[in-house]
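Lecture 7 notes: from sequence to structure.

We start with a single chain of 216 residues. Read the sequence below before looking at the structure.
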Amino acid sequence: MSRNSGQHLAAYEWEKVGLVTFIMATIAATQDRAGFLEGFEANVKPRATELGSLDTSVGQFVMGGEMAGLMGISMEWDSVDAALEASETIMSQPGGRDRMANTGSSIVRRSIMENIAENGQREGKYLSCTYLTGTITDEGTDLSWKHAQSGANGFMTCRVVAAGMAGWTGAAFAWTDSVDAMNVSRASMLADPEMMQIMSKNDMRPVGRVIMRQLA
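Now the structure, written as tokens:
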């Protein structure tokens, strides 16, 4: 989920003026990964960019229980309305459903989250997503990055807007080239007394984790 070249400035400008953005995460199953990625690069990504997506990327779940092997498409928008309209437009593209059928692909679930805090760059071979429950706030953002940056290239905290019936209210994303290094920084963060106090105050705790390999 690295920021697309040519779109990085736009996303940076959103952050500079303090406006929020929203991450639409689509989970899909496919029987043809190569065909799925080809369709993403040739059709989905260009169309999303035309519609105003600030960041569009795809990865595959490697570790994540029953989610292993599924594909994850992420698109970043400046509003929920923009995400909803774009989703409908992309899904109704001519030939879109035929391409999904030809690759044995189907949508498993789709969620949208508010990006409430972010540091670093969305760059790295792997992406870790830790599902959180409780009250998700941007409190402790600098403290989180203080620890995370020793093992991660980027760190983002999101709060759920709509995710169906789910046992999580937010997620922490970390981009890295070494999951081992990230695990060390993650342990350090969770053991920090100040972070423990923030999490306790907000009844916030991790309830699950998946690791993805970034593909495009």
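The longest strand covers residues 106-120. Keep this in mind for problem set 3.
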